[in-house]
Design a protein that fits this description.
The chain is an alpha/beta fold. It has three domains: 177 residues, Rossmann fold; 63 residues, Adenine nucleotide alpha hydrolases-like domains (SH3 type barrels); 79 residues, Elongation Factor Tu (Ef-tu), domain 3, CATH 2.40.30.10. 24% of the residues lie in helices and 30% in strands. The longest helix is centred in the first third of the chain and has 20 residues. It is globular, with a radius of gyration of 22 Å.
């Protein structure tokens, strides 16, 4: 009997390295695929793709599997980066990692893997897939501090049916220990952070290449000018650092936070105090909804949701669902709900789907 073939997205990091190793040990016919998604400034200090490829090849050699490299830069620019710029121009704060997963890692990569004769694909994401009565569910990872289901909430039934997440039941420290024992070159490699294609580079400097800066006024909630901003695209709701206005401007010493953007006037709205009413919302509207099961869940039922990745689940109800829009009401006010970010809905440890905060 021939072993099922699994194509693993080998990124040159420890998580994907251990993913490939575990599947090889489980008896699968494993092939590694290294994806190159960005080319614009590949020779600069912030771009690690050359070193990542070297590490991925080293791991494949150590495990004893073949590896191929594929260039998805065009697809990435068309499907992910163009949307990223469009959202920033509209004054929103997008999460390109989510789009990268649904359009590149689980679409372009999946299609390419199938052309290589794959039965399944696998990645180093911390999440789980479960089949119940012919329906595929996306579940949170056992390691709550590493769970990445938030970033995977736009996957569909077809994508989940062909995907393995071997790290879903492991803790991060266990993954590093497995890599160390196997002598993998990536065992001590630092986790990559930041946006998928930007990496560690200074964000403002990066955006300036693609979008002109338009400085303007900062106003407080009463309409008084309290400072100048360098361009609305550089600020996100709830931001405290980098505003350049002291806490005692109005005499009470509380720190300033970004509370809104007035695009028509090119003004940044700022307020003092972490719990200012303009920073708190108990309802939100979301659009571009995607439900993993292929149909919307029932309304007026208690769920939980996140409006950003590093956030505890907050109890909520779905008040209404119309076409691809919905309204979500929270039991307690949520802080700095940010247009352009994703709200992701859960029922216990099952990720139901989500949408873009309007």
């Amino acid at each position: 009997m021939t072993k099922p073939r699994v194509v693993v997205g080998l990124s040159g990091g420890v998580d994907s390295s251990v993913t490939a190793l575990l599947l090889k040990e489980q008896g699968y016919d494993v092939v590694g695929l290294f994806m190159k998604n960005w080319e614009d400034d590949d020779n600069e200090e912030y771009c690690s793709s050359k070193q990542d490829l070297i590490d991925a090849v080293s791991v494949a050699d150590r495990i004893g599997i073949d590896i191929e490299a594929v260039n998805f830069s065009k697809e990435y620019k068309d499907k992910v980066f163009s949307n990223f710029l469009e959202e920033y121009r509209a004054g929103r704060t997008p999460n390109p990692d989510i789009l990268c997963n649904s359009e590149i890692k689980f679409r372009a990569f999946l299609d390419h893997a199938m052309s290589m004769g794959a039965d399944k694909i696998a990645t180093g994401h911390y999440a789980q897939v479960r089949e119940v009565d012919g329906l595929f569910q996306l579940l949170k990872a056992e390691d709550g501090s590493k769970d990445q289901s938030y970033f995977l909430h736009r996957l569909n039934q077809e994508q989940l049916s062909r995907t393995l997440f071997p790290l879903g039941t492991y803790l991060k420290r266990e993954v590093r220990e497995i890599a160390r024992k196997a002598g993998l070159a990536t065992s001590e490699k630092k986790d990559s952070t930041g946006i998928c294609f930007i990496g560690e580079r200074p964000f403002r400097e990066f955006l300036q290449r693609y979008m002109p800066t338009e400085p303007g006024d900062m106003r407080n909630a009463e309409g008084k000018i309290v400072g100048r901003h360098t361009g609305l695209m550089y600020y996100t709701l709830g931001q405290r650092q980098g505003l350049g206005i002291g806490g005692s401007r109005d005499g009470d010493g509380e720190p300033w936070y970004v509370a809104g953007k007035d695009l028509a006037r090119n003004e940044l709205i700022v307020v003092q105090g972490h719990d200012h009413p303009l920073l708190l919302k108990d309802t939100l509207q979301a659009s571009n909804m995607h439900w993993i099961a292929g149909q919307a869940p029932r309304t007026h039922w208690v769920y939980a949701a996140k409006t950003r990745y590093r956030q505890a689940d907050a109890p909520c109800e779905i008040d209404s669902i119309n076409d691809d829009r919905c309204e979500i009401r929270f039991g307690e006010s949520q802080w700095a709900v940010t247009p352009g970010q994703s709200v992701v809905v859960y029922e216990s440890n099952v990720c139901l789907g989500g949408g873009i905060i309007a």
